[in-house]
Amino acid sequence: MTSSPSRTLAAALFDLDGTLIDSTPAVNRSWIRWGEEWGMTPDFREGMHGRPARDIIAALVPEDRFEAAFNRVAELELADVDDIVVLDGAAELLGSFDDSRRAIVTSCTRPLAAVRIAATGIPAPSVVVTVDDTVRGKPDPDPFLEGARRLGVDPRDCVVFEDAPAGLAAARAAGCFTVAVVGTHQAAELDADIVVASLADIVVTPTEGGFTLQTR
């Protein structure tokens, strides 16, 4: 772990899958079935974690088949919410922020984010930014810029909690402070200001005008 920032931060932006919740079994089942139906080789998703489904599919199928392919994987993912769990420390950390200072920023579609949040019962913030809310998804900065905008804060005063290189790249491009959570990727693969084994390692201390972070 690196040292924590001494300055006050204004808001926290959380990735969803792999950061707050683990939907890996459901995601794998859906995408494996999709890949089999669409004739993909078993390694077709390699290096794609954290990127929007539409970007993955656009790289794999011809443009004239994109809508059918995207709709099918969306159908499969929406139907499978088994084995989705809240990750260690996630609910506690998310709940430690006032609602005006927290948001979820995910590469999921709006319906998929809603289904997965409901399946886990995690305390969802009022602001949830999905891939449907920006033209460009992660690794572009647009999703985190939109999250900061909706909270009414400067993105440079936000901390982003992420588990994927694509999400961390988006956060850095937005000017945010970054905290990486090891799990879907090893620590050596995660370029962040702080790297932790789980969100349980983060301690939030309220201050006038925001909060500071510490690591256990």
UniProtKB/TrEMBL annotation:
It holds the Pfam family Hydrolase. This is Phosphatase. PANTHER family: FRUCTOSE-1-PHOSPHATE PHOSPHATASE, GLYCEROL-1-PHOSPHATE PHOSPHOHYDROLASE 1-RELATED. It comes from the Bacteria. InterPro entries: HAD-like_sf, HAD-like_SPP, HAD-SF_hydro_IA, HAD_sf, PGP-like_dom2. Gene3D superfamilies: HAD superfamily/HAD-like (3.40.50.1000), Putative phosphatase, domain 2 (1.10.150.240). SUPFAM superfamilies: HAD-like. GO terms for molecular function: sugar-phosphatase activity.
